[in-house]
């Protein structure tokens, strides 16, 4: 965006789903006031060439209690802001953005510990209920392909990903940072079958985004908000491949998935119904392509790099990173 002053900026295009993040501070004392108000005006040109203005006014309650601040903090909004701050730093060539991410996380957890949980044991990691996932999300952001310096992603792909994240909608933040992973086979009893509400179908159970949860004879579906990946493990029996994909040859699965819907088995139609359910949930967002991931292929390496609880590209796994954050919070207290 072209920044005009502290309260005004220009952008060439803004979709209905794009999210702009603001960090606002107040210079006047607001103690004793019940509410504060934030007003935003968007002057834009619609498709018909008309100049329009949309004004949004937000009323926020004032509190002097940090406990209330933490209680009503929204994790997706915080993560969206941290992600975009990291993107801005990366695009400007600031290589310390990963350290800033961790510092922001530690500062928040330390503030909660000192002001809201000071009576607890010093050796215990205390997380506010609203921010329990913050260390997990911060650790996951550090592992994202757009922030890695290796050769597994081309420079143009990295820059494209960074720019796309600048306008990332709130609803797309969580799946991008921590992809949803479903057990696609064996299908649970109701997975892929109609719920009776519109075109909706029941979804299969999710698992943690960790390789420890992946069995070698199952099929998984990963959704990161940008794309969908069906991961066929190396020991899936041929009869399962035949039943789900219409072929008992692992190498022929991608081609088999391109067949007309009427030629698919009942289980295959249930699998496609699950895929379509995810796409319907994000009907206003960009179309999510479906990618078949087979063992030993380049797509598998890319898929495994999105398993964000594992050690990826030199970054710590989730448990080790959580311990690292805990030590930093303790050191800050000392």
UniProtKB/TrEMBL annotation:
GO molecular-function terms, A-Z: SNARE binding; zinc ion binding
Organism superkingdom: Eukaryota
Signal peptide from the UniProt entry: none
GO cellular component terms listed in the entry, alphabetical order: COPII vesicle coat; endoplasmic reticulum exit site
GO biological process terms, semicolon-separated: COPII-coated vesicle cargo loading; intracellular protein transport
Domain Sec23/Sec24 helical positions: 76-173
Span of domain Sec23/Sec24 beta-sandwich: 8-63
Gelsolin-like domain span: 202-256
InterPro entries assigned to the protein according to its UniProt record, in alphabetical order: ADF-H/Gelsolin-like_dom_sf, Beta-sandwich_Sec23_24, Gelsolin-like_dom, Gelsolin-like_dom_sf, Sec23/24_helical_dom, Sec23/24_helical_dom_sf, SEC23_SEC24_subfamily
PANTHER family: SEC24-RELATED PROTEIN (PTHR13803), SECRETORY 24CD, ISOFORM C (PTHR13803:SF4)
Protein name: Uncharacterized protein
Classification lineage: Eukaryota, Sar, Alveolata, Dinophyceae, Gonyaulacales
């Amino acid at each position: 965006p072209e920044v005009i002053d502290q309260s005004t900026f220009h952008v060439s295009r803004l979709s209905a789903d794009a999210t702009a993040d603001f960090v606002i501070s107040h210079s006047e004392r607001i103690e004793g006031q019940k509410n504060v108000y934030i007003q935003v005006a968007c002057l834009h040109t619609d498709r018909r060439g008309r100049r329009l203005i949309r004004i949004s006014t937000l009323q926020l309650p004032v509190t002097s209690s940090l406990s209330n601040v933490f209680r009503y903090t929204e994790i997706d909004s915080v993560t969206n802001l941290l992600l975009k701050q990291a993107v801005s730093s990366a695009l400007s060539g600031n290589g310390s953005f990963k350290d800033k991410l961790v510092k922001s996380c530690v500062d928040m957890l330390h503030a909660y510990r000192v002001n809201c949980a000071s009576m607890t044991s010093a050796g215990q990691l205390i997380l506010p209920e609203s921010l329990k996932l913050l260390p997990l999300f911060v650790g996951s952001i550090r592992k994202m392909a757009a922030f890695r310096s290796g050769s597994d992603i081309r420079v143009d792909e990295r820059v494209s990903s960074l720019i796309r994240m600048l306008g990332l909608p709130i609803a797309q933040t969580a799946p991008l940072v921590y992809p949803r992973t479903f057990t696609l086979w064996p299908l649970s009893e109701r997975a892929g079958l109609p719920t009776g509400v519109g075109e909706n179908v029941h979804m299969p159970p999710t698992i943690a985004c960790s390789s420890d949860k992946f069995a070698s004879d199952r099929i998984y579906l990963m959704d990161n908000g940008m794309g969908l990946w069906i991961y066929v493990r190396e020991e899936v029996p041929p009869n399962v491949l035949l039943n789900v994909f219409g072929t008992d040859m692992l190498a022929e699965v991608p081609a088999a998935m391109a067949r007309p819907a009427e030629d698919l088995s009942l289980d295959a139609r249930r699998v496609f119904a699950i895929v379509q359910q995810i796409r319907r949930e994000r009907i206003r967002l960009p179309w999510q392509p479906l990618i078949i991931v087979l063992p030993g292929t380049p797509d598998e390496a890319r898929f495994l790099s999105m398993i964000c609880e594992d050690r990826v590209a030199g970054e710590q796994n989730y448990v080790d990173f959580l311990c690292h954050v805990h030590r930093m919070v303790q050191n800050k207290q000392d």
